[in-house]
Amino acid sequence: MGQRFRVGQGYDIHRLQAGGRLVLGGVTVSEELSPIAHSDGDVVIHALVDALLGAIGQGDIGDHFPPSDPTLKNADSKRFLNHAMDLIRREGFRVVNADLTVLAERPKLGAFKKQIVRNLQALIGASVNLKAGTNEGCDAVGQGQAIAAQAIVLLVGEG
Length: 159
Ligand code: MG
Description:
34% strand; 5 helices; two-stranded antiparallel ribbon; binds magnesium ion; five-stranded mixed sheet; alpha+beta
């Protein structure tokens, strides 16, 4: 039997507000800004989870964790990621690599990239690349009113 491959992509955006805490890839990157979100609003993990779910044909993060669920208020997004990884393993796959882009005018993310990558690599057991950019002043992200992330993953079947 040949190797089985799956690819998936994900996207997420959250509006930003003054005050609170901003977590990206499980790492606190600001204590002056926070996402407007039901969970902890970690856009990097949300995009990654959607990519992983997409790769195994399991819908999106909202199908698995409805925003209407009161028990998910301020939920740690690592819980969503661990759930997606459980499904992937159950389907007989592992992650080959993940490539992520986060777009934010603020805060500046350069100093946090390595820590986010290390954190995510440990959570998904695979190589992670993170690109951080601004939106060049365009739209809500470029005006610092929102933060967005994109993810693409490759999975391979285990035997
Ligand atoms: Mg989200």
